[in-house]
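step: validate -> pass
step: tokenize input -> pass
step: predict -> running
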Amino acid sequence: MNKITRIILVVVVCLAIGYMSGTVTRSAITTWYPTLIKPSFNPPNWIFAPVWSLLYVMMGVAAGLVWNSIESNKEVVKKALLFFIIQLALNALWSYLFFGLHNPMLAGLEIIILWLMIYETYIQFGKISRLAGYLLIPYLLWVSFATVLNGSIWWLNR
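step: predict -> pass
step: emit ->
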């Protein structure tokens, strides 16, 4: 498989996982989520889809760049991609916990683990490709914001 194909494949996988997470979110956005008390810094709902789409593309490009280094650092790349897969699964799980189960407390606990896994993925990716690491910084920052938002929503609605 050539380098561009790997990147495109991972981007498509990330976007597909984002889409699947969005299916859980969509119904709750119109029914349950409007009933919650939200902090003043809560962004408008329309901002989430474009931000997440961009983040999924950046994540996919980063993982593709790392995957493209597999010939030179097989074990290091495998380890980095394992962290990537775990954090991607946790990313999808968060949507289910928060929007599917309507459980901001459990989602809040899970998002802390997600943040730690993203950070470790960032560290691992940076060892292989500086650009791949840099591409994860906006994701790490957005999930930092999401963690504060999640915690605030839980606090205001407990």
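step: describe -> The chain has a mean pLDDT of 96.
step: cleanup -> pass
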